[in-house]
Amino acid sequence: MRNKEGQNRFISREITVEDLSLYEDISVFCDSLEALNWAYRHGLSKSATIMTSSPAMLCSGNTNIQHIEARWSTEELKKFQNTIQKFSEDIFDAVLNIAGIEREYALAISQSAVMFQKVLYKAACLDENDHLHARLFIRVEGNGGPNGNNMNTPWGHLICKSTSFSVINYTLQNDDWNTLNTRGVSYWQRYKIAGIETILYRLAIRVMKYLPNYLFKREVLVPNENELTIEVVASLIKHGVKVSKIELKNKNKNKNITSSLDLRRLYESILPIMQERIEQWVSPSFVEPTILLFKKTISEEIKYLDQMIFQWEKLIVGNDKIKRAVLMNAPGTRKGQALSYVCRRNCIPFISATHGVTVEISRLHGELSVGFDNSVGDAVLCNSFKAAQVEDKSHFSYAKTYVVGISNRHISMKYAKNTNVSVPSIVYISYNIYRGNLDQFVSYKTDYDAAIWESKIINKVLSRLPHNVCYKSYPDDNRRYSDIDPVLRDIDTAKNIELSPGKVDMRYLIGAHRIFITTVATSTLAWPVMSGKPVVFINQKERGPLTDDAYLSLSRGLFVFNDDEINFHENLREFLSQPLDKIDKLWEEKKGARKDMIREYFSEYMDGAAGKRSSQIILREYFS
Fold first, then answer.
1. Residue 251 pLDDT more than 70?
2. % of the chain exceeding 70 in pLDDT
3. Does residue 165 share a domain with residue 23?
4. Which tens digit of pLDDT belongs to each residue from 508-546?
5. Res 8: pLDDT
6. Residue, of 251 and 180, whose pLDDT is higher
7. Most buried of 193, 194, 306, 615 (most Cβ within 10 A)?
8. What is the maximum span of the chain, computed from C-alpha positions, in angstroms?
9. DSSP sequence for 15-83
10. Strand order in the sheet with 135-141
11. Is 538 in the same domain as 589?
12. Is 562 in contact with 539 (CB distance < 8 Å)?
């Protein structure tokens, strides 16, 4: 690269905005249109090649913007994703075989290695030219949501060996970002869905913290909640069990905690496994930086786990006069692993309640099996025998599973009736949430491919229906990219589609609509299914597809369309263009098969007594 005087020189590591006008023919890593336009205004050459993962940038029409993930074919992504599960199992076994390292640490390290795959994926996008030639990274600063700013790929760590790599920081001006909320949902609507159990639970949390322990013989500790945990606790309260909310505060307060783990022995065990995988996908110049970044990630993971264990110990240990148990939602995280460690070492029962329906219907969820609910603790409350079966078969299976049925909140969806005739009868529940630098794969698609797929659904199907449609975007808490999702432009131009405002959970909108369209095998599916109203499910074969067994069952109970079939868009559009009464009639014909489907995949019991059933198990097995 040359400056304006034509002299050869390297760009320094950190540059200021004035420096941008000095350089030509530079390749730039950037995932923000706002940041890129700022750089253009401050002298960045319009001929510079811009490398990005951002769907908004790739859809902008700028011919100099290139897709950095274009090196990944569908077959390569399939191979990459399908090998993550076995890789995680190998890491776990290697760590667990080290004397002195306990189960929860092995889980956390294995899970961290799985999370690192998104970094490895980006490292694999680099080639030797990125090491040899000048590169500029425009890094953005801004509000990223509860998990902080995760809008930047760690290019600085991956290209650190190159002396011609530079970074410039840009602070976002368009920095509005909202998280999941209940704005616009009345207290009456919330109460109808939450039920009396939630009121009892909330009241008990507030009152019981002021009551002395000697008034109780048993206590349940709740670090977080979901629909089922609330109902379980409400039932336990009726049996005289005290409930206490426990919460980690100042997780980084004790930064000087020294870990007892021997990092040298740990690295000796896991680095050969990781290095083999890195060398399979990454260009030679970037193998060493990727390994160093992985080591740094593992070191930070262990420190963070140590800090959480220290905090949990202070919160829950030290009272032998009352029987205690922990009830947690989604425990397969660092937070849950740390709490499980403390509970196991102090003989405190650790129980979890599954979050909706996912692992039992998703073909690609083995990638995340290290974080399944039954990987930690003593017991898991499952909604169906199928869910228990899938978790029990996991390599990481540890806890005992009990089948109790789905929450009463889900079952009460059948009473959610249309309340607003001005709202479109059809709603499309989008799962167009991008991976960015946050999510795992469970997919063979890039973010750009996902945007193209979503755009086609809007332009080839929804916008051409004779009915009005509500588009419900996914209420993402954590920001992947700084720019507005480009598919929303397609909604703006469609005369029959309106965008659902805000970030309200779908459960509060079930009563407003008559027919639901959704896609990707996730827990969201349970809400419309349990409403009893017609559900159209689009089975994406390259993103969150159904298992073969789930596909057979759901095809009989719902309206299922495969996106890889010939004339997929035309067939879906033709079906949805029918009179709504006709769709209702076709739905009624599936009633018998749907009952079997719900029992197999959504809830073994339909009596709304999952909370009561669970509390009886806890009282009998863990509080007796």
1. no
2. 94
3. yes
4. 889 889 999 999 999 899 999 999 999 999 999 999 999
5. 34
6. 180
7. 615
8. 83
9. --GGGGGG--S-EEE---HHHHHHHHHTT--TTSEEEE--HHHHTS--TTEEEGGGG--HHHHHHHHHT
10. 65-67, 49-52, 27-29, 135-141, 165-171
11. yes
12. yes
426 DSSP β-pair partners: 469, 515
* Average pLDDT of the segment spanning 572-590: 98
Structure tokens at 225: 């909640």
Q: Could you tell me if 418 and 548 lie in one domain?
A: yes
How far is the C-alpha of 448 from the C-alpha of 53, rounded, in Å?
Answer: 7
Residue 148 is encoded by which pair of tokens? 């902080």
Could you give the C-alpha distances from 553 to 560, 592, 596, 601, in angstroms and in order?
Answer: 10, 12, 8, 9
pLDDT at 12 (0 to 100): 43
On the CB side of 162, CA atoms within 13 Å amount to: 26
Angle of CA points 428, 430, 434, to nearest 5° = 165
Whether the CB-CB separation of 315 and 341 falls below 8 Å is answered with no
Residue whose structure tokens are 């790739």: 58
Q: What is the pLDDT of residues 317-344, one digit of tens each?
A: 776 789 999 999 999 999 999 999 999 9
Residue 420 pLDDT: 63
Distances in whole angstroms, Cα of residue 382 to Cα of each of 413, 414, 613, 620: 19, 21, 11, 17
141 by Cβ neighbours in 10 Å (0-12 / 13-18 / 19+) ranks as: middle
Q: How many domains does the chain have?
A: 3
Q: What is the CATH number of the domain that holds 383?
A: 3.40.50.2000
Q: State which residues form the domain around 245.
A: 213-253+318-410+607-621
pTM of the model: 0.93
